[in-house]
Amino acid sequence: MGYREIYKEENEKAQERYELVTDRLRSISEEETVPEQYRDYFSKAADFLLYLDGLLKKQEKGSLDMESMEECKKRNDRLYGDIRPEHYKASYGNPAYAAEKFGKEAGQMLTFLYSELQAGIGYVFEEKKAAFVTLCELFVQVYNCFEQEAGPDLKEAGQVIYWYFHDYSEIFAQWQVDEMTDPQLDFCTRIIMDSDLTDLRYLYRYGLPVGENELKIAEYLNGMPEAEVQAMADTYTEGYRIGFEVTGKDLSKKKTVNLHYALGFERMMRAAIKNFEKIGLRPTISREAFSSFFNKGGTKRGAYSTSVNRQFDYDHREDKAYYFDKSFVERRLEALRTAFEKKKKAAVEHGGPAVLETFGEAPFSPDVCEEAIRYSDKQQQLNVYNASMSGQITNEYIPGEERSFTIIAYPVPAVGADFREIFAETVKVNTLDYKKYQQMQQKLIDVLDGAVFVKIKGRGDNKTDLRVAIRQLEAPEAQTAFENCVADVNIPVGEVFTSPVLKGTEGTLQVSEVFLNGLQYKDLKIVFKDGMVTDYSCGNFDSPQEGKNYIRDNVLMHHDTLPMGEFAIGTNTTAYRMGQKYHIMDKMPILIAEKCGPHFAVGDTCYSHAEDTKVYNPDGKEIMARDNEISLLRREDMSKAYFNCHTDITIPYHELDRITAVYRDGSEKDVIREGKFAVPGCEELNIPLEEGEK
């Protein structure tokens, strides 16, 4: 059974409603029953839904896949052209434009709805007719509220939207769980495994935006020898397998792996799926989220493509605020638990995610749109609660101590004219000799273990001045405070990291420029006291308060404060050299950038939800620093122990003066001095740094 068969019964039940609602949509563009200022909006939106209706009919007949490349490109432009940057200024998807046309209250409602209608694209391509019907009915009901003789009833229209998300929470939550745990929902898998990947029309089968990045990366992979593509897939899947092995988890109990990848990488993913099948795992893959319910505009996950317009994504990233209240959250959490209960066996057998990220796009610093929907303070608190409880429910059914993950990154053509060279260098970076790094990193750990605290100081314009408290060991001969991280779950090599003791961890962290969660930060400063964030600023905006809001929303994730959940020293100087050589340091993903200097995570520790699972380094020593004073609160109140976020902030080597271990007797040893590794036996790590200075 595949995805079509699974949706067949509910689609058949929705057929009569489908015919009624599409008939109603056809009449809207001909009517003059709403005030004149709204007619163009409703006519455009109705035409968009009717266009989707036409695509659905073709999809059901199988004729959509027969269209020429030119027709595919025209279709893609029809679906997404309106919100592209060159058209965004006068798009109803732009909150500022909608507010200008309709006033702030009506404008926010209608731009929200306009954005939400994009979810219909996914419903059509996945042939979720019943879901498409409910979306069309939502639109028609809102339209009806604008037909009132006394003028638009905005309150009633708002209630229509609210109850749509409230009433369908059960269905949406079930989709989330099903798409993660049920390999029979094989929409994306079938594209990967059944398509002729040399015919690039396959990229348009997802219904996602397809641009130069997707087309060129697919062309590039098609030109690679099979052995090289297989080697890329092997690195990815071996990282996942070894992740279970090194943490002592039983992979044989698992039946599924959740894949995340960028369009264009299907040739590699096909090889990866075959690799996973050899170790007993079937893939589950969801399509990138386009509904506010699923956090549209958030981290790229599932089968995803390059953003059409990152400003649009940023403007709509908190659209959920339109209907987000305590009643909705409680219902959604109840629905999530019910969904997991229905898939209880499949959830236990789920192994976790295997993620392929991309990098190369120009750094993005958004404009602040005052008219965009934003969470209130109360909603931000609710959002934190929702994330915390969702994490707990998920962990209850897919225990953290039994699952693993892996993550790897590759460049896309947007990285620049040196794309081919950078891609080849990235493959090299992802396949460095982890045994060699393991040995050098152990020498670093030997110096760091036993330190009471570590001092980190910047140089030049970097004013970083931090003191990080380190877990003290009761049995140093059998214990360590730092994990020797090579290339298993977290590719590429290498770093050594720990969960700092919060008390005594203090000072200022500064980075001149950094790229976090898809957003650019200039002159980022964060101040810590007893391990907790007490102040922060950045230079992105003229207004200091706008900078604070930007950090609070996108680094602190709406929390008033966060702990320092990780202190690490990156050792991948080869990756750093690549970034410097090709001038792409500002484009490197955090996955690689974190290996290019010391980094500090705000949020949960690296062992979140699995602190009680013993973990060992290759030398056999148990890693003791799995907890901090916050995560230990789980023994009293789980809701106080986790923040459900973890953002790494890296100081590049060229902004670093030194890292010094300070011992109980007052003696000191430099780990890094003047931006170079100072520990005997680690001289090889300095070679790429010295090459970059020539």
UniProtKB/TrEMBL annotation:
GO BP annotations of the record are:
proteolysis
Q: Name one GO molecular function term.
A: aminopeptidase activity
Check the record and name the InterPro entries matching this protein: M29_Exopeptidase (IPR052170), Peptidase_M29 (IPR000787)
Q: Which EC class does it fall in?
A: hydrolase
Which keywords does UniProt give here? Aminopeptidase, Coiled coil, Hydrolase, Metal-binding, Protease
Question: Which residues lie in coiled coils?
Answer: 4-31
For this protein, the Enzyme Commission number is 3.4.11.-
Asked whether the keyword Coiled coil is assigned, the reply is yes
Q: Which PANTHER family match?
A: AMINOPEPTIDASE, AMINOPEPTIDASE AMPS
Q: What is this protein called?
A: Aminopeptidase
Species name for this entry? Candidatus Eubacterium avistercoris
Give the lineage.
Bacteria, Bacillati, Bacillota, Clostridia, Eubacteriales
